[in-house]
Amino acid sequence: MINEEIRAKEVRLIGSNGDQLGIKPFREAMQIAQDAGLDLVNVAPTAKPPVCRIMDYGKFRYETQKKEKEARKNQKVVELKEVRFSATIDEHDFQTKLRNVVKFLKEGDKVKMSVRFRGREIAHASIGQKVLERVAAEVAELSIVERHAKLEGRSMIMILSPKVQVQ
């Protein structure tokens, strides 16, 4: 709340440079803020009496929005990328898909690897599990197994997450 929106008889007043001005009646605090050409901002409404600060509210809002925007720009959103294998995958195809898994892990994304069983392949689920475990072994220095291979319907799924790089 700022200026006239504040509904308190007395406020603890903090000056524009951060010094304590003590407990003042609201009208007097409002007058001090207007004389300085600044706003009276309620920074702690639950305190007894409420704490108000004299500041340029527009400039304060602009700076906080700028800080929030900077924080959003610097944060990394971890995505879940999926790479599909087949139980009877050939060596060259395996290496190509493995390169994609390595690329995703280096970018900091989680990787969901799935083996889709078609027809009677489901009877040999252990073959699909060997494929997933082979991928996990190949990228062991880059990743941690977040979820081990598990059969869900006609698919076997394993999730890898990247190891945290200390810089």
TrEMBL record:
PROSITE patterns: IF3. Its main location: cytoplasm. One of its GO terms (cellular component) is cytosol. Residues 2-71 form the Translation initiation factor 3 N-terminal domain. The keyword Cytoplasm applies. The keyword RNA-binding does not apply. SUPFAM superfamilies: Translation initiation factor IF3, C-terminal domain, Translation initiation factor IF3, N-terminal domain. Keywords: Cytoplasm, Initiation factor, Protein biosynthesis. One of its GO terms (biological process) is ribosome disassembly. It is found in: Cytoplasm. InterPro entries: T_IF-3_C_sf, T_IF-3_N_sf, Translation_initiation_fac3_CS, Translation_initiation_fac_3, Translation_initiation_fac_3_C, Translation_initiation_fac_3_N. GO terms for molecular function: ribosome binding; translation initiation factor activity. Pfam families: IF3_C, IF3_N. Monomer. Belongs to the IF-3 family. IF-3 binds to the 30S ribosomal subunit and shifts the equilibrium between 70S ribosomes and their 50S and 30S subunits in favor of the free subunits, thus enhancing the availability of 30S subunits on which protein synthesis initiation begins. This is Translation initiation factor IF-3. It comes from Paenibacillus thalictri. The lineage of its organism: Bacteria, Bacillati, Bacillota, Bacilli, Bacillales.
